[in-house]
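Example record for the data management plan.
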Amino acid sequence: MKILQLTTFFLFVSTVTFSQNLIGYKEDEIRKYMRENQKDMNYASVTNSRFKYLKYTDNDDNETLLFFLNNSSVCKSERIICDYSIKDRKIKEFNTKYKKIDDNSWLDVRGRKNYTIYIKDEQWSCIITIVQTK
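Corresponding structural encoding:
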């Protein structure tokens, strides 16, 4: 019984939170990944003359994902805007998945590429940014 409860809890947490690094993915790969793995996130069509990005929001409007794309439609950075109620859960997730740099940043190493994850508190939300670093 406890195993079933733990499994259900971890499945719930994995569907509610998102911190998958998709930098380097092409636009169609991101759309496919989100469609298959983040069914609770809804694509929102956006138009912006300055830069191209994909936007996804959850059903409760607690979390928004932005994938910033270059001219070749490849993801160059990510931003997650989330409600403060999710922040502690995100920090715990980052602490288990990535190397902690300080209280508000982590290092994600994949192959020969390094990515830095930053959390910044804003007035109404928490901003998480993922960028490739040298």
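Summary line stored alongside the record: Residues 2-133 form one domain.
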